[in-house]
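Escalation from tier 1.

The customer reports that the assembly of two entities below gives different structure tokens on two consecutive runs. Tier 1 could not reproduce it. I'm attaching the input and our single run for tier 2 to review.
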Amino acid sequence: MFVRLVYESFRRQKRRKVLAGAAITLGVTVATAMIAVATDIGDKINRELRTIGANLVVTPQEDSLDVEIGGVNLKPPSDGAYLNEADLPKIKDIFWRNNITSFAPTLPVPVRLEHAGKQQDVTLLGTYFAKRLPLGGEDFTTGVRSTYAWWKVSGAWPDDNSRNVLVGEKLARRLGETAVEEITVSGRRLRVSGILSTGGAEDDQIVAPLALAQEILGKPGAVRRVYVSALTKPEDAFGRRDPKSMSGPIYDRWYCTPYPQAIALQLTEAIPHSHAEQIRQVAQNEGAVLTRIEGLIFLITLAALFASALAVSAAMATAIFERRAEVGLMKALGAGKLAVAAVFFAEATLLALIGGAVGFGAGALLARQIGQSIFNSQISIPPVLLPVILAIAVIVTFAGSAAAIRRAVTLDPVFALRGEL
Amino acid sequence: MFLRMLVRAAVLRRGRAASALFAMVVAAAVATAMLNLYVDVQAKLRREFRNYGANIIVVGRDGASLPANAVAQVDSVLAGRGIAAPFAMIVARTSDGQAIVVAGTDFDRVRQLDHWWQVSGWPAGDSKDNSHFSQNQGEVGHPESYAALVGVRALAAVTPKNQPFDLSFQGRTIHLTPAGTVQTGAAEDSRIYLSLADFVAWAGVEPSTIEVAANGSPEEVTAIMNQLAQAIPAADARPVRQIMEGEARVLGKTRATLLAAAALIILTAALCVLSTLMGWVFDRRRDFAIMKALGASGRLLNGFFAAEAAALGATGAVIGFVVGIGIAAWIGRVNFHAAVVPRFSVLPLVLAGSMAVTLVSAILPISLLRRVQPAVILRGE
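Tier 1 run:
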């Protein structure tokens, strides 16, 4: 009887059920999409922030001081220690390897540039442009093109295995030619594939493939520094603590959190004779910006949840209010308050489940659309969230209907049937 | 008569009218808050990005020093729209012959510009304080000892025990006391910083670089950069591209996300109002039928319900606007630790939107009811 009542109500009042269901679906869609966006926004903005450049740097442990003013390196090349290029793939072997988005080794070499009869001392910077590193199963492409996204080249980027170089914008202007085809560096004739513009010290330098720089320096496999771009978690009080003072489980928790310090420690461990450190200008501010944006989206998600809860309850209240006559009839036939309320609650649950499931799907699609159009990458929502969303939908629908149902069950059947109220 | 009908209608059905008004207020509040945040978030996030430090660098052409009044000129161009810090640099030698970069700067300005510098103790700003300092702590035989901010790597190389040390440049020697260390993870770690007055007195080298953090939109920053280039012809002013590009990207994406969220939320709120109001009007089909039976014209009926809806919309919009400003201010305080300035330019938009939604939700059921005979409605069918 009970089941038939509910079933018949759905069969006969299709229009009203569709309206209430649509409200629930819409509410759940918005809620799901916003939750998905809120949970993923940190990662997305983190990736955008990586365009500001590397946030970690690996230096040789026994390195001497940098003597560099305005991009001109005054340190004699024989001075200081080097890292070994062969150790670099180990960067993608640390605990947080998937958080390493890219890295670029650098090797500055002071060279003598001869061009059109003029001679001058400049820095030749060896690095990776877009080098493919074989890592177990898959290849990893890394280099300045991904680490320093703002570097612009007019012409072509050199190949990492070639002997082509880039000439900095200001240096090219000093050479007095708009199109520099070929330069002679320390007795080697090198083809210039493009003019580099960075807005930084590199504008006065020559940028070459790492292997070429090592050959000119006469130190195969040498790397002075590695700039690493990693997705990190904003530093908090726990992240700032000294790992040496921590006991076992607390240390493990610190080590397994992608704080800039923890990743730096892992890099130091992975590369022999090295010291990794966060570049504070990038790493520190990143955390601040990220916290703000995440907080903002979180608060807005709360607003969205509130608005959709309200929409659902408004629709339910209207739907129930329109069925006073039906309630009157049920009561006139002897139904108790409990029975009437049970019918309405059963209907509400059914609606919430159907609307919730449809809304979850639609919300996932919407989130995906938002991710695709704003961030050019997907925002996916874990299916684990489905029961949570359904539960929220049922609770909100119940809460929204409660007041209307209470009013309905206290109706005097006589008035209700006469349509006076 | 018309007015009395309006008022009585609201008073007699208090509960339903209140719930309709409540829905309207919530919708208007949410819309106001979202629009306010959308307008304001850019300014708020820009401020966060200024913590990245300089977005413009002024350098003397071909490594030459800047004119002596360059800092004052930069300040006058900025006129409070940012902060600038001068830097002068040389390579000095320690007593054991090691080369080291020494920089002179204005510590007060650097503190405001480069928030990420981790400094154990800033040296006192001007040289007067330094001489005072040296009288108390300077060793015998060194009448003048200057306070220096030493990079962590430089400290390990020059004076691992944190003791006073000497530096020489072109035959002139200076006696320095480490006042604190600086750690940044970048080139600053290998340098020693002095106050600009001490530096110029010792090395005789004027600043060659001014780092400028200019506030404002990309257009404003570019304008400031052009003004700087004009004000100091002997220098190049260039943007710090990674900061400007990163800022533009993050701000753009955040605003786009906010816009999408605002659209979704406002849509939901509007639908909530629509369904509540339509229920309310539908509910009053008896009033409608009686008025019609008593001979009210279609225009009068339309006018009546439209006026009612408009009044509801306007009241809801105004109350909602105030509440919404409150919500935006609260979010600003909690998240950005700064007030979100109320934008009264949003009010007409919210008002118009609210009235449009209420009118649609009143007219829609009325046009359905108009086709029905009053007798049928009054019979309750």
